[in-house]
Design brief:
The complex is a heterodimer.
Chain A: E1 10-12, H1 15-18, E2 56-58, E3 70-79, E4 82-83, E5 88-91, E6 97-99, E7 105-111, E8 119-123, E9 130-133, E10 142-146, H2 179-186, H3 197-204, H4 213-218, E11 222-227, E12 234-239, H5 244-248, H6 269-272, H7 291-294, H8 299-302, E13 305-308, E14 320-322, E15 341-343, E16 355-357, H9 364-371, E17 373-375, E18 394-397, H10 399-404, H11 414-418, H12 467-471, E19 472-481, E20 484-493, E21 508-517, E22 520-521, E23 523-527, E24 538-541, E25 557-566, E26 588-602, E27 605-608, E28 617-621, E29 642-650, E30 665-669, E31 677-685, E32 692-700, H13 704-710, E33 717-723
Parallel strand pairs in A: 3-10, 15-16
Antiparallel strand pairs in A: 1-2, 3-4, 3-7, 5-6, 5-8, 8-9, 11-12, 13-14, 17-18, 19-20, 20-31, 21-22, 21-29, 21-32, 23-31, 24-28, 25-26, 25-28, 26-27, 29-30, 32-33
Chain B: E1 10-11, H1 51-54, E2 90-104, E3 107-114, E4 120-126, E5 130-137, E6 146-148, E7 171-177, E8 182-187, H2 192-197, E9 202-207, E10 216-225, E11 247-250, E12 257-260, E13 265-272, E14 279-282, E15 288-291, E16 294-300, E17 305-307, E18 312-318, E19 323-328, E20 330-331, E21 335-336, E22 342-349, E23 377-384, E24 389-392, E25 403-405, E26 410-417, E27 423-427, E28 432-437, E29 447-448, E30 450-453, E31 458-464, E32 469-475, H3 478-482, E33 486-491
The chains are: A mainly beta, B mainly beta.
Region (Disordered) (chain B): 27-87
Domain Plastocyanin-like (chain B): 107-210, 377-491
Keywords (chain B): Metal-binding, Oxidoreductase, Signal
């Protein structure tokens, strides 16, 4: 039975137990601090506190005599010596809260039947949470003396590392006590935000996959000395194509690398490496070394976010207001600064963390700190079209606003989907069933199911999570009239609370559609096609010579389409609120004409397996999803039967699907908003009475051209595949 | 039971109140009436006996487990409703919903009850019978009776979508043919979270003449109480899911004793009527013979069976020695939880002996229907315990998009859960076949009316849309229904 009588309750100070493997301490407190659990009151009438030693205390009034299942305690909460009204008083392990009155007083009901330590805590946003162990035979008033957290952000503070999997580390690492969180975070995209080689390739204008001079120069790159990301080392690297540093800094990038020379950094580090020690904001991504590089967005960074300023730009020193502690540590053993961590709970009194509650941790606004990025024209000499972007910024990343505009606003914040609950843990300190009786100040309290949330941030970059498969659905309707098969394929954003795709605008969704009679693939004779952002190797409008395709290879496919006006759609922002007309929405309506495959190459002249039909534009590409046997690498498939969804950014020269630091316009944005759908039509010539339609939707992380230029391992992911 | 079900009128203080954030010593599960084997009953609430009065044996069990060292109560099936119709192919019962003060865990609570007992009277029919229920609303508010799991005509379904509730003091006659066999239950479908919580539920046993006859049956209704129910705006919010169960009752009793004799073959019909709690049942040599829609396609012998809210299971006990029926810690996350096991009740055998041979239940071993791959109707679940809102396809009931399935056609419904809570999906008016769970088809044909959709999973079901109407489709975690997680599937 639950709630066994506490006839001789063993109240253990568990700090020593939970932190038995203390190693060298960087900045955390020792396990002998007495300030939090114990009362510091000098008032003789207040209860003597437990210290944080492994001491067993008999809380019964008499050995063997059951104590009441519920007792009362009068408490007073002071803030800097002044009675604090509205402070939270909470018993660990119960979730029951009372608030103090104008005199700072409250009457707390203590459930003595809980397992683990009997502890009352007082909490307020202005202070670190503190605790008193309850002695059942001492009914004197408990006084909590909270101290205001000193304001200001301390640039001298050094962020604590999270630790690494399969190594308990020391108390200098958050993961020493939060091992499950550490492991989850370590496998998450947040951990890789600063070390992601793709980010660094775009930042420096590098193709790190081109690792030798020959390959680099053959691809048109420059083999220059530059910074090895995550270090202060220089090494020869392949500089090629667009890059934040060469694009934003006019004094470099032509004859040598911008690394170490550039002065304009594009605020990349404000979100990608937000935990660079020292001054926050405006830092060079190359400043990220050590924890700030390996850890990316890590524990001590997020839990130093004191508040959110929605009016400020994305990143630290902007929307994410950091507060690194300025109070000097009370003891050299706890490091130079007094521990401070912000989090969602009011009942965390562990002095190693110095916890103070903040509600923003489970709000979408917290995530907006980096997942909402409105951007001005950054490349010198460029500007936005004020008729399209009157505020002087365009939405580069708009996941937060997409959510706000959708049906899940005020219903399901980001963490509802992206931080799954973890029923295997009783709390964030890895409390498990065999340790229930040990819950207390150090090991934390048993929280109800759902309270312990995985720090995984599941999404497209965690394929095993299946989030992409949950996000989209395909519905197929078809009709056959004589030998003409007409099919409507509807793609619905069924599962995501934001647009699909979202986030990084290099992403796109590509829908492939085919029809077949048995194994015989039918010829598409009309209907929608994959837009240009599906990728092409070469593009020739009519009336250019379509027999000449420099660089073509046998097996290439040339797809011919007609241009039939514009697609109208309901997209994000001005693409859906009536601001833009159909032409301003910028997505040409391309229709299938036909395609031929290259079967011979003679110089620039190519021979096809069938004559190319007449049309408006021809795209040279590669076999698509079906023809190539479900390839996972992105191919150039513009003009193939299907469709696509993307936010298409363009630079000053009109190049599309460019990295957002170069962009001056959003040419089109037909990404599918939450619970919205798009139906494309496809027509085939059928040779049977019961043709089958196949439809596959894939998620692309990067556009084909960029993948080819940088040599990235571009793993497309199938979101949904349906045949009917 | 949660915070609305209050009103203590006495105090026995047997049950240790949990430490959750609500003080809801509510109603919802009282002491069952007697009459396990008689087949008739209709005892009134004023005749229900307290735990101490029904205790049969105080000499067994671990004294440390005795709540307050009181004699442990005896578990009996709820009293059955009296059949008022002499026609052997028809069953007519009288059912009245009215307030009732009853005892739970030693505390007297003000709840509601059918025919003065909680659980309500068990209605026993056989497949093919016409069941007529003369219902009287003795409450001061609207109510209805929904026949959970039975394929009834839409007008008899007890919902107020395009229908009327039964007003205070009003009568309504429900009548339909029961063309199914198995264990079902009935409950209101108005203000369901509250009305079920207050005690309005009962069991329907639909016998199949093809089934072998056990020595006796035990109908046991599990209910949870003292759930966590945090206010999302409260600093006490531990960000958990509502409905984390603190205590379970079996026919209104905490940890009772069920006396049995060695050699008995007992069919136990278990129903989880909890608003939100999952109960993972476990006992030695479990023989799982029946589910939500009658006898299974094959015998299952798992270590435990999880009953989601509204779920049923039939088990076969081949009694040799006594054993404990255990509730394993399980959460609304659709997974084992961090907690302790608890004994739900004890099967007590005075003189152990060899267990009997099993009965020959008609397991047909049917193969599952292949999944054609496409989807006709898609329901996606979202929501969050902090906000208290739970949606299907981003919509909050009653502002929903009605999906339609053509009458007489087999359709594919896909269920996706993009939330951290599991959602037991219940479809009215139809049973459905499970085609796959996360892409894996069941080993044998599996037919349900309620199916748990675990967080982040995709479940595909096949529905033969053979019953015209606007059928409610919803999560059976009732606070989630309150939070909007209900829609309408039209069959026409």
């Amino acid at each position: 039975m639950r709630g066994a009588q506490r006839s001789a309750a063993a109240v253990l100070g568990l700090l020593a137990l939970a932190c038995a493997n203390d190693g060298p301490i960087a900045q955390t407190s020792s396990n002998t601090s007495s300030e939090s659990v114990g009362s510091e009151s000098s008032d003789a009438t207040t209860q003597t506190a437990e210290t944080e030693t492994e001491t067993e205390t008999d809380t019964s009034t008499d050995e063997g005599e059951p104590i009441p299942e519920q007792i009362e305690r009068s408490v007073q909460v002071l803030l800097d010596g002044v009675p604090l009204e509205g402070a939270i008083v909470i018993q660990g392990g119960t979730g029951v809260v009372v608030h103090t009155d104008a005199d700072g007083r409250a009457l707390a009901l203590i459930d003595t039947t809980i397992q683990g330590a009997l502890v009352l805590m007082a909490s307020d946003e202005r202070a670190r949470t503190r605790a008193h162990v309850i002695l059942v035979d001492d009914d004197s008033e408990l006084v909590f003396e909270l101290e205001s957290i000193e304001p200001g952000d301390n640039e001298e503070y050094l962020f604590n590392p999270a630790g690494v999997p399969e190594n308990m580390g020391t108390t200098a690492e958050c993961g020493h006590c939060h091992q499950a969180f550490k492991d989850q975070w370590h496998a998450s995209p947040h951990r890789r935000s600063a070390s992601n080689p793709v980010v660094h390739d775009i930042y420096a204008g590098v193709a790190s996959a081109l690792a030798d001079q020959g390959a680099c120069e053959a691809a048109g790159g420059q083999w220059w000395m530059g910074v090895v990301p995550g270090s202060d080392q220089l090494a020869p690297r392949c500089y090629i194509g667009a890059g934040t540093l060469p694009d934003l800094n006019e004094n470099c990038g032509e004859l040598d690398a911008c690394d170490g020379v550039a002065t304009s950094f594009g605020a990349c580090a404000d979100c990608h490496a937000p935990a660079i020690d020292g001054v926050v904001g405006g830092r060079d991504l190359h400043d990220a070394v050590g924890t700030s590089f390996e850890g990316g967005v890590h524990c001590d960074l997020c839990h130093k976010v004191e508040s959110i300023d929605l009016d400020a730009p994305a990143g630290v020193a902007g929307r994410l207001q950091l507060h690194r502690p300025v109070e000097v540590s009370p003891s050299p053993s706890v490091g130079p600064w007094k521990p401070l961590a912000f989090g969602p709970y009011a009942d965390v009194p562990n002095p190693r963390m110095g916890a103070s509650p903040r509600k923003h941790f489970l709000t979408a606004e917290f995530c907006s700190g980096c997942h909402q990025h409105d951007q001005a024209a950054l490349v010198p000499g460029t500007s936005l079209d004020p008729t399209r972007w009157p505020d002087g910024v365009f939405p580069a990343h708009s996941t937060y606003e997409e959510w706000r505009a959708g049906p899940f606003f005020e219903i399901a914040p980001c963490s509802s989907c992206h931080m799954p609950a973890d029923p295997s843990l009783g709390n964030g300190a890895d409390l498990t069933a065999d340790k229930l009786a040990m819950q207390g100040v150090a090991l934390g309290w048993l929280r109800p199911p759902g309270a312990t949330r995985q720090h995984t941030w599941v999404g497209p970059r965690t394929p095993a999570s299946g989030m992409l498969q949950l996000a989209a659905a395909i519905f197929i309707d078809k009709s056959l009239v004589d030998t003409t098969l007409t099919t409507q394929v509807t793609v619905r954003n069924a599962g995501a609370g934001h647009a699909i795709p979202t986030g990084e605008p290099l992403r796109s969704l590509v829908l492939f559609v085919q029809a077949r009679c048995g194994d015989d693939v039918l010829t598409a004779i009309d209907g929608d096609v994959i837009p240009e952002f599906g990728g092409w190797l070469d593009r020739k409008p009519s009336p250019e010579d379509w027999s000449v395709w420099p660089g073509a290879a046998i097996g290439d496919v040339v797809r011919v389409v007609t241009v039939d006006g514009w697609h109208d759609y309901e997209g994000f922002g001005p693409f859906g609120d009536g601001s833009f007309d159909v032409t301003q929405k910028g997505l040409p309506r391309l229709r299938v004409v036909g395609q031929s495959q290259v079967i011979s190459v003679n110089g620039d002249q190519v021979g096809f397996d069938a004559p190319l039909p007449a049309g408006d534009v021809a795209y040279r590409g590669r076999e698509g999803y079906f023809e190539a046997g479900a390839p996972l690498a992105a191919a150039a498939v513009a003009g193939a039967p299907g469709f696509g969804f993307a936010r298409v950014l363009a630079d000053e020269a009109g190049a599309q699907m460019v990295p957002h630091h170069r962009a001056v316009d959003v040419v089109s944005d037909n990404r599918i908003m939450p619970q919205q759908e798009w139906t494309s039509t496809h027509v085939f010539s059928a040779s049977c009475q019961d043709p089958v339609v196949d439809a596959v939707l894939v998620h692309r992380a990067y556009p084909v051209a960029l993948v080819r230029e940088r040599g990235w391992d571009d793993a497309q992911q199938v979101m949904v595949e349906v045949s009917k | 039971m949660k915070r609305w079900a209050v009103g203590l009128v006495g105090l026995g203080a047997v049950l240790v109140l949990g430490s959750a954030g609500c003080s809801d010593a509510g109603a919802g599960a009282g002491v069952a009436g007697s009459g396990t084997d008689t087949g008739t009953g209709g005892q009134t609430g004023t005749e229900t006996t307290s735990s101490s009065e029904t205790a049969a044996d105080t000499e067994t069990g671990d004294p440390a487990d005795l709540p307050g060292e009181q004699p442990r109560p005896e578990l009996q099936s709820p009293a059955e409703a009296e059949d008022l119709d002499p026609d052997p192919n028809a069953v007519r019962v009288s059912l009245t919903a009215a307030p009732l003060a009853f005892e739970i865990g030693g505390e007297m609570v003000q709840g509601w009850a059918y025919n003065g007992q909680v659980p309500g009277p068990t209605i026993r029919v056989k497949r093919g019978d016409t069941l007529t229920v003369e219902f009287h609303n003795g409450l001061d508010t609207d109510t209805t009776v929904h026949w959970h799991g039975l394929r009834v005509p839409f007008a008899m379904d007890g919902v107020t979508w395009q229908g009327q509730a039964v007003g205070p003091g009003q009568d309504f006659e429900y009548s339909f043919v029961v063309d199914q066999a198995g264990t079902y239950w009935y409950h209101p479908h108005v203000d369901t979270d509250r009305q079920v919580d207050l005690g309005l539920y009962g069991v329907i046993v639909a016998e199949d003449p093809a089934d072998p006859v056990p020595d006796r049956e035990l109908v046991v209704v599990f209910d949870s109480w003292n759930e966590f129910s945090f206010d999302s705006d409260d600093e006490s919010d531990h960000h958990g899911l509502d409905g984390a169960v603190i205590e379970w009752t079996a026919n209104g009793l905490i940890d009772p004793v069920f006396p049995a004799a060695a050699g008995e073959r007992i069919r136990v019909r278990a129903v989880n009527v909890a608003n939100a709690g999952y109960v993972a049942l476990s006992w030695p040599q479990m023989r799982h013979i029946g589910g939500g829609q009658g006898v299974l396609s094959d015998l299952r012998e798992p270590a435990s069976v999880v009953l989601v809210p509204s779920d049923r299971m039939d088990g076969e006990w081949l009694v040799g020695d006594g054993f404990d029926v255990i509730g394993l810690p399980y959460s609304l996350l659709g997974a084992p939880a961090v907690d302790e096991e608890r004994r739900l009740f004890e099967v007590e055998v005075d003189t152990p002996g060899p267990g009997p041979a099993p009965l020959d239940y008609p397991f047909d071993g049917a193969e599952p229907t292949p999944d054609p791959g496409w989807t006709d109707v898609l329901y996606v679940f979202h929501g969050d315990p902090h906000t208290g809102y739970w949606t299907i396809n981003g919509e909050l009931f009653p502002d929903v998009t009605i999906e339609t399935m053509p009458l007489g056609e087999w359709g594919i419904v896909e269920l996706r859960n993009v939330s951290q809570s599991a959602h037991p999906f219940h479809l009215h008016g139809h049973a459905f076949e499970v085609l796959s769970i996360d892409g894996v088809p069941p080993e044998v044909r599996r037919v349900e009316d309620t199916l748990d959709v675990a967080p982040y999973s995709i479940v595909r079901i096949g529905v033969l849309a053979d019953n015209p109407g606007d059928w409610m489709a919803h999560c059976h975690i009732l606070p989630h229904v309150d939070g909007g997680m209900m829609t309408v599937l039209r069959v026409e």
